[in-house]
Amino acid sequence: MVIHFTPGPKIPPLPPVGNTVPDDEPEFAEESGPCDKCDGFYGSGGIILQGKVVKCCLRCFGRKLHLYRYGVSWIEAFTHPGTCCPYKSKPLEAAVKTANEKLKTGFGVYNRFKNNSEHFATFCRTGKKFSIQPLIHKYGGDKLPELPVDELENIAAGTSEN
Q1: Signed CA dihedral, 75, 76, 82, 86: sign only
Q2: What CA–CA distance (Å, rounded) separates 10 from 51?
Q3: Which region, left, alpha or beta, applies to residue 148 given φ > 0 means left and ψ of -120 to 50 means alpha?
Q4: pLDDT tens-place string over residues 13-65
Q5: How confident is the model at residue 85 (pLDDT cuts 50, 70, 90)?
Q6: DSSP assignment of 10-50, as one string?
Q7: pLDDT at site 146
Q8: How far is it, in rounded angstroms, from Cα 159 to Cα 162?
Q9: Of the candidates 76, 47, 51, the residue with the CA atom closest to the CA atom of residue 60
Q10: What gap in Å lies between CA 70 and CA 122, rounded to an integer?
């Protein structure tokens, strides 16, 4: 089972990053409908409960699986968006505990730049919200802006007022 933060229904998807599950994988057949394993909905890229923290099976989670790295440099995080984070990861058990807590309490309102699924995942793993998307949105993706680290952290956490 996977616990994740889903976008609301009006947010178009970002281009995918990561590895694709093989098309011949029987678990991911091209069909759709309510899932008999969880409260999700597989096929057509959807989860029934959108804009919330949800728990679902891998089939309903989606066709894209990502390996996410922690403890990388800010430059690597900026040049490989959606794949890594500059913060160190907590032990897996602590991350799962945080995810289960957020399943009960929620994670606020989904916002692509201030509170998205990457913010949720990194918060569960590190205790800090992080997504490079706000930095790229604000400054473009050509090079990491020369800002103090605390300002980079505020923008990446979605807490910057600018």
Answers
A1: negative
A2: 10
A3: beta
A4: 444 544 444 444 444 444 556 677 776 655 444 444 567 888 888 877 776 77
A5: very high
A6: TSPPPPP-SEEPPTT-GGG-S--EE-SSSS-EESTT--SS-
A7: 86
A8: 9
A9: 47
A10: 9
